[in-house]
Design brief:
By secondary structure, the chain is an alpha/beta fold. The longest helix is centred in the last third of the chain and has 22 residues. The mean pLDDT is about 95. The structure holds pyridoxal-5'-phosphate. Pyridoxal-5'-phosphate binds next to helix 6.
């Protein structure tokens, strides 16, 4: 958007009129918002002309990178042709049909139906309503409870925030709502000491079984998890976890749901994160990388068993004015096609992903306060810890992470602090030279951070 204002004028107007998400307004307004004015590839520019390496792809979403003129051209053409029409009342349009067809091709077998939303949170809420409706139709209306995980993140709506396991969100607004319970996360570093990761994976999966038995299998509708917990700090479960969770869900006739809002569309080097871990969800939610953030759109991929069940039930009384919005659908189609046809996801799997992971481990393994250096594809993290030998974390979880994150910002590198987990998830088009730049800058920043800690 063209505007002639100065940075100070933007900041003043922003402070006067804009309430930001997940933000302490007072502290923001003292500091002044950073004003981002343009972007290209993996770089952002602020209103003072600083060039910033976006190591987080926005909010883990700009998979295809910034500045793709082909996507803006698709949006313009679609706006000219059919800017809006809905998909209610037995109506459809070419953009949503083409997108659905393409998504059914890139999804694993058995996912031939897609329901559209405008965001990850709406996808999660839609999924909650779908699984409850499914069990109603199947004559098991008692199966209503969903099991999520502590430190999982499933969005900000009342359903999504309830299913997520962020206590700082639950504290505001009396969450979780009834019918949602949680189990502990499969975080080996914190909870699995004394066990091999593989042993711990089975133990953590059994927490799901214990919860199903506690609630009663005839009351449990679904277990929901991110294949890799993203906002929780890139918690990568041991290889044994998901297959055991799947076995347990099948045993008790509980639907298995993957929240692919971050992991989906290539972040791990596979199209979807559950493919990396080799499990088979009944439904999965998506957003972010579906359009690479160019326009808001989310989706629920509904497995054939659930799609069939919903169809048997007649009307499913749920939907949004913008479900399958033509412009968002056309842009998502162009984005997904490019991710496939330009080999972007293949490159993450075979080339840039392995390169990033090797360099990441080499670069951060030697720091005194950096441990659990981890990642896959182009999602990676390490944890700032007080004592590597004893795995002791810092007191005041998140304090050191914030100090470190601010140092990164000052060096024009965006990485995220999830508590004391430092996370990077750059656009999937990042080159090896840009990976080198990201890591070299991050090493400099962590060196500065450790100096502050001593
Ligand atoms: N699910 C997961 C796994 C997410 O990471 C997020 C957002 O980060 C959401 C759901 C919510 O998505 P949105 O912010 O688009 O509502």
């Amino acid at each position: 958007m063209q505007s002639e204002r100065t940075t100070e004028q933007w900041r003043a107007l922003d402070a006067a009129h804009h309430l930001h998400p997940f933000t302490d307004t007072e502290s923001l307004n003292q500091q002044g918002a950073r004003v981002i004015t343009k972007a290209d590839g993996v770089f952002l520019w602020d209103s003072d002309g600083n060039k910033i390496l976006d190591g987080m792809a926005g909010l883990w979403c700009v998979n295809i990178g910034y500045g793709r003129k082909d996507l803006s051209e698709v949006a313009r053409r679609q706006m000219d042709e059919l800017a809006y029409y809905n998909t209610f009342f037995k109506t459809t349009h070419p953009a949503v049909v083409e997108l659905s067809h393409l998504l059914s091709q890139v999804a694993p077998e058995g996912f031939s139906h897609i329901f559209y939303t405008n965001s990850g949170s709406e996808s999660v809420d839609t999924m909650i309503r779908m699984v409850r409706r499914y069990w109603d139709v199947k004559g098991k209306p008692g199966k209503k409870t969903l099991i999520g995980r502590w430190n999982g993140y499933h969005g900000s709506t009342i359903g999504g925030a309830s299913l997520g396991g962020m206590s700082y969100m639950h504290e505001q607004g009396d969450l979780p709502i009834p019918g949602i319970v949680h189990v502990e996360q499969p975080w080996w570093y914190r909870y699995g000491q004394g066990m091999s990761p593989e042993e711990f994976g089975v133990v953590a999966a059994r927490w799901v079984e214990e919860k199903i038995l506690e609630v009663g299998p005839d009351k449990v509708a679904a277990f929901v998890g991110e294949p890799i917990q993203g906002a929780g700090g890139v918690i990568i479960p041991p290889s044994t976890y998901w297959p055991e969770v799947e076995r347990i869900c099948r045993r008790y006739d509980v639907l298995l749901v993957a929240d692919e809002v971050i992991c989906g569309f290539g972040r791990t080097g596979e199209w979807f994160g559950h493919q990396l871990f080799g499990f088979h969800p009944d439904l999965f939610t998506a957003a972010k990388g579906l359009s690479s953030g160019y326009l808001p759109i989310g989706a629920v991929f509904v497995g054939d068993k659930v799609a069939q069940g919903l169809a048997e039930g007649g009307d499913f009384n749920h939907g949004f004015t913008y479900s399958g919005h033509p412009v968002a659908a056309a842009v998502a189609h162009a984005n997904v096609k490019a991710l496939r046809d330009e080999g972007i996801i293949d490159r993450v799997k075979h080339d840039t992903g392995p390169y990033m992971q090797q360099r990441w481990r080499e670069a951060f393994g030697g720091f005194a306060h950096v441990d659990d250096v981890r990642g896959v594809g182009l999602i990676q993290a390490f944890t700032l810890v007080k004592d590597k030998a004893t795995h002791e974390l810092f007191p005041n979880w998140g304090e050191v992470g914030t100090i470190c994150r601010d140092i990164f910002f000052r060096h024009n590198l965006i990485m995220r602090a999830c508590g004391d987990h430092m996370v990077a998830a750059p656009p999937l088009v990042i080159s090896k030279a840009e990976i080198d730049q990201l890591i070299d800058t991050a090493v400099q920043c962590v060196t500065e951070c450790e100096a502050v800690l001593h």
